[in-house]
Every structure is written in structure tokens, then in C-alpha cells.
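[User] I wish I could look at a protein chain and see how it folds. I have put the entry right below:
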Amino acid sequence: MAKRCDICGKGPLVGNNVSHSNLKTKKRTFPNLQSMKTTIDNQVVHVKICTSCMKKGKILKAYKPKTTLTALKAKAEADNLLKALINA
């Protein structure tokens, strides 16, 4: 899987470790990626996002809508009607 931010495209950087004797060996530094759920087109999807994008607020977390008492009552009534139709 790519170590790249889905929002800004930030990816790994390449550089050198330099020793005291000036020997150089390659090193890679990776962005601080976090996986989180977000809503895109009314669907919850997982994205990899760097922490700088999280701080800037470029994307919002997905959340479950709170079920209210009236919504629960409406669902119960619909279930009762469905059971009555099946039994009849």
C-alpha cells in the first residue's frame, strides 16, 4: 500500500545519513499518516491522511447520526405495521 496522503499527496522523502567520516547512506523519511473514516458522497470510506491535513481541517471525520426518541418510536411503529401485514 502506498505511503502517500490521499488528500495532499505528500509521500516519502529521500535523503542521506552522513556519518562522522562523511560516508553517505540512503534513508527514507515517511509522512505521519493516520487512517480515518470520512464521508464522501454520503458514503463512509477509509482514507490515509497526514497529520498536517488533519490539523488544517481539510477533511472531517465520519459520524453516526444520533438516534432520537421520535426516530426510535417511528421505527417501532413501522415494525409493528409490517408484522401486522405479514400476520394478516
Observations:
- Strands lie at 13-18, 24-29, 33-40, 43-50.
